[in-house]
Structure formats: structure tokens, C-alpha cells
Amino acid sequence: MSAQNAEIMVSCFLCGADDAKEIFRKSRSGRVVKCRDCGAMYVNPRRSGQVMSAVREGDAPPKVQPDEAKWADANAAIRFALLGRWDLLPEPARLLDVGCWTGFFMRAAKRRGWKPTGIEPVAAAAEWGRENLNLDIRTAIFEDADLPRESFELIAFMHALEHLHDPDAAIRRAHELLKPGGVVAIECPNADSFMARIFGGRWRQFIGDHVSFFTPATIARLLNKNGFSKIRVKSIGRAFPLRLVADRIERHYSRSIGGIVEFAIKCVGASNIGITLNPGDIMFAAAVKR
Question: What is the pLDDT of residue 5?
């Protein structure tokens, strides 16, 4: 077995226990287990190359759609509005976007008055955001990034936490970097959703680089454990162009059905028509640093 595919046994990221029951023997993420002590779900064992422990160099530039900014702005508006309704939206100041990819969420935040900094371990994505969006994106692993303590009012993990080997360490680090009263916002898959239960091991969020999974209860416990209060969690939808429906069907479930859907959408000229959909398996959580 190559070093890249060597299997590594891990303990529960939430409570540290080694007593877990198997939930799915096979999924696109791998073998998924659930901690008997706290209910956290994670991949165990995992391949040594399944999570990034160092900056990843050599990738091709990311494929970015011409209207990507439009959809990023629409979705950022939904999330900032929800933080406002929860009374968890600080006055715009310094924002850290962890796992920011090319930085479109940062761009949307900047348009709302924030001063964003991004952390992205994939060098090609970080470089694209710096060059094309003129953003402050650091190519680094979050836990290793050289950032001053208590320097941010808002830290966002937008579909980042499920990729991390140790979410507990990441949230603890976020607490250190937030100013007193600062807010952490997390968007991630909900492993206790109806969609997750219906599809089981074929759930769309079981993909190769997702290794940690959360429910409303476990995300709340993770935040409370690491010094956060006023915790709010809610299912959230997403605005996107219809062409993305075909892409996701093809990627996660059936290439042939996805191809048919894509053909039909193109035939009626609806590829760029937008919809907002909430299948219920994505959640948005936020909390305040105690």
C-alpha cells in the first residue's frame, strides 16, 4: 500500500473516545463510524492523503464560471441576513474565511464593508483569488497559519469543517483568533437530515475529502466545548443556476440521468436561470465567543 493510501486509525474528534460503531462500511468518503460516547460521526480508518496536512501545490487553475460572483453574492446575502435575524452579526470589521477556495464569499463580504482575509491550502485556488479578485488570501493550513490572536470579529467556515482532520482543534484555534464577543459562522452538511437518512451510504455529502460529519447536536457540543455561547443552528438553502442541478446529479448519483437533465435544460435555454433550493441536508450554525 502506498504512503498516500496508507490507512490511519483515528479517535473521535469531539470527545477523544475510541469506542465507535460502524454506520456505513462503504461510502465515497470511506468507512463511516459513530462515536458511542458523544454521537460524532467520522471516517475511520482514513487514508493518509485524505486530508491536507500541508499546502497542496501543482493543481491546475480552478474552473470558474463567468457568473460565479452573482451566485456568491446571492448566497452571502442569505447568510448575512440570517446572522442579522439571530442578532449575531457584528459591525463590519475583520473577517477570516477558512478554506476560502477562490474567495467569492470574501468578495461578497468585502462589498458589505468587511475587511476579509482568507486561508486556503490549495495553492492554485488561492493564487486565482489573489490575481483575479484582488483579495488577501494566504496559502496555508489553517491551524499553522501565522495570524495574531484576538484579531477578527467574524470567522467563517463555509463548507470547510467537514474536510478537516481535527475540527475540535480548528474551532479552538478560531476561538483564539476571535476578539471577545466575536462570532464564528459554520456551514456544513447535516448528517442527521432526512436526505442523509434516506440515501444512507450514497448521500451526496459522502465524498472523498469529507472526513468529519456533524448534526445540530454535535456542532452545538463542539462550539460549547470550545468556549462559544448563544449557539444557533438552522437548515439553509442555496441559490444556484439550473445547470448545477445536472452537474450534481451526474457527480453524486447517476452520470446518465445527469446527462439527460443537462440536455433538457440546454434545450429549453434554462442553464443560467436561477433557483433557490433547500433539500434540508445543509446547516448553518453561529455562536459568540464567551
Answer: 67
Q: Percentage of residues in the chain with pLDDT exceeding 70?
A: 94
Sequence letter at residue 14: L
More confident residue, 66 or 286: 286
Q: pTM for the whole thing? A: 0.91
Taking a C-beta distance cutoff of 8 angstroms, is the pair 182, 154 a contact? yes
pLDDT tens digits, residue range 36-66? 999 999 999 999 889 988 999 999 999 998 8
134 contacts: CB under 8 Å, gap ≥ 6: none
* HEC profile of the chain: CCHHHCEECCCCCCCCCCCEEEEECCCCCCCEEEECCCCCEEECCEECCCCCCCCECCCCCCCCCCCHHHHHHHHHHHHHHHHHHCCCCCCCCEEEEECCCCCHHHHHHHHCCCEEEEEECEHHHHHHHHHHHCCEEEECCHHHCCCCCCCEEEEEEECCHHHCCCHHHHHHHHHHHEEEEEEEEEEEEECCCHHHHHHHHHCCCCCCCCCEEECHHHHHHHHHHCCEEEEEEEECCEEEECHHHHHHHHHHCCHHHHHHHHHHHHHCCCCCCEEEECCCCEEEEEEEEC
Cβ atoms of residues 235 and 283 within 8 Å: yes
Domain 55-239+278-289 sits in CATH at 3.40.50.150
* pLDDT, tens digit, 9 for 90 and up, residues 109-165: 999 999 999 999 999 999 999 999 999 999 999 999 999 999 999 999 999 999 999
